[in-house]
Amino acid sequence: MSGLGEAADARRVYAISGADRIAFLQGLITTDARKLAEGPLYAALLTPQGKYLADFLLVAQGEAVLLDIHADLADAVVRRLAMYRLRADVAIAPTDLRVRRGLGAAPEGAVADPRHPALGWRAYGGEAGGAPQIDWDAIRVAHVIPETGIELVSGETYILEAGFERLHGVDFRKGCYVGQEVTARMKHKTELRKGLARVTVEGAAPVGTIIEAEGKEAGILYTQAGGAGIAWLRFDRAGGEMHAGDAVVRLVAG
């Protein structure tokens, strides 16, 4: 099942420039913007209450940082960034760049997707798209990689429940950013009792179908591919045979 973010041409690319661009990003995003010199970053913006607003990739390019973001979130994120800009020497401008992605040998200038090696490479130029034979949903399901607008719901998702630590999307040593206090508390003072996990799926159900276990709500079923799926689960209720509509769902151990 495809979702909002599965087509690379559903992305927009902005250029963040100015002498203060790294310091500006550093105070807002969940990863360490100072590490952009080492390679691309996966990051998110959070609410002050620590909930996910948007996720995106950041790529250093000359004297600018490229912001690679899903089109449905782009306008709101750019407005929010502009609100935080104040007197900083930062400019945020749309570009004509489009996103290509693929697996295997990467074209010149491409960068590795920082979330997981299975996601291959991304390139920025005049053409969009990716190899049509690649089942990106199956790759995401196999590695429990959430997608914008599907498993990642603006204003609702907590990034640690969505696996951002495993996907290099949060840095606990970088210092303060919006939503940092709640995220750090979830990391250090609580045990995650809810989160995304891989499940087997016999049958099929629409994205967003409630999962029930012994008559109690146990989670939500999202992307499905090849008899498996990504589900958000309450781990205390996730065990044995569960049901999402007419589909039978079981948690994959480990």
Q: What secondary-structure arrangement, pairings included, does this model have?
A:
Blueprint: E1 11-17, H1 21-26, E2 41-46, E3 52-61, E4 64-70, H2 71-85, E5 91-94, E6 98-102, E7 111-112, E8 121-125, E9 129-130, H3 136-143, H4 180-189, E10 194-202, E11 209-213, E12 216-225, E13 228-234, E14 242-244, E15 247-251
Parallel strand pairs: 6-9
Antiparallel strand pairs: 1-4, 1-5, 2-3, 3-4, 6-8, 7-8, 10-13, 10-15, 11-12, 11-14, 12-13, 14-15
Describe the protein:
15% of the residues lie in helices and 34% in strands. The protein has 254 residues and is an alpha+beta fold. The chain folds into two domains: 8-133, Aminomethyltransferase beta-barrel domains (Alpha-Beta Plaits, 2-Layer Sandwich); 193-251, Aminomethyltransferase beta-barrel domains (Elongation Factor Tu (Ef-tu), domain 3). The chain starts with 10 loop residues before the first strand and ends with a strand. Mean pLDDT is 93; it is low at 1-6.
Summarize the structure.
The protein is of the alpha+beta class and 254 residues long. The chain contains 4 helices and 15 strands.
Oligomer: single chain
What would the CATH topology of the largest domain be?
A: Alpha-Beta Plaits
Mean pLDDT: 93
Distance between the ends:
24 Å
- In order across it, which strands form the biggest sheet? 10-13-12-11-14-15
Number of strands: 15
Count of discrete domains: 2
The major pleated sheet works out as:
6 strands, antiparallel, barrel
The number of helical elements comes to 4
What characteristic shape results from the CA principal axes?
Answer: globular
CATH architecture type of the largest domain: 2-Layer Sandwich
Structural class: alpha+beta
The CATH class of the largest domain is: Alpha Beta
Please identify which CATH superfamily of the largest domain we are dealing with.
Aminomethyltransferase beta-barrel domains
Low-confidence spans: 1-6
